[in-house]
Amino acid sequence: MPLDVLIVDDSAAIRKVVQRMLNQAQVPLGKVLEAGDGVEALAALRQHPVHLVLTDINMPNMDGLQLLGQIRGCADWAKIPVIMITTEGGEAKVMEAVQRGANGYVRKPFTADQIKEKLDGLF
Length: 123
Prior knowledge:
Largest sheet: 5 strands, parallel
CATH architecture: 3-Layer(aba) Sandwich
Helix content: 25-40%
Number of domains: 1
CATH superfamily: Response regulator
Radius of gyration: 13 Å
Strand order of the largest sheet: 2-1-3-4-5
Distance between the termini: 9 Å
CATH topology: Rossmann fold
Low-confidence stretches: none
CATH class: Alpha Beta
Mean pLDDT: 93
């Protein structure tokens, strides 16, 4: 089954890297939506439901933790798997994301194998 995916990062280049890694990991992609921050991500989710969200933590306007809270707080989106993508060296933000309901995380730079490993068991 093709997965519709939302990739959220304030860097367009990183969004393309994430999409390339999903392809390399042989994830069966359907529609791929992109957003530059949490505000854009929420607008995209309202327009098109997705099967998976991959989001950066550090972004302007609405960061990944705030986005995660919005997703988990909405009945229509609460069960969507969310994978956090971070440059955070410290564990505090990552642990906060997991406590808020993230399904996993990867640290930049990451590999296709790491993405595949995080998605195993979710679908």
